[in-house]
């Protein structure tokens, strides 16, 4: 694996990649991460 265990920091990793590489206007992004105790976190983003 290129990045190893991403688990909880996945959302921050995806956000950094979006800021670095950008997405086109109108595009959607879903960020999902699984944390300790089987918790799940998600965020839906859209560039305007």
Labels describing this entry:
1 helix; 48 residues; 29% strand; two-stranded antiparallel sheet; alpha+beta; single chain; flat; 2 strands
Mean pLDDT: 81
Strand content: 25-35%
Strand order of the largest sheet: 1-2
What is the CA-based Rg, rounded?
A: 12 Å
**Low-confidence parts lasting 5 or more residues at pLDDT below 50?**
none
Main beta sheet: 2 strands, antiparallel
- Amino-to-carboxy terminus distance: 33 Å
Count of discrete alpha- or pi-helical segments spanning 4 or more residues = 1
* Count of discrete domains: 1
Q: What is the 3D shape?
A: flat
The string of secondary-structure elements, in order, is HEE
Q: Helical proportion? A: 25-40%
What's the count of strands? Answer: 2
Structural category is: alpha+beta
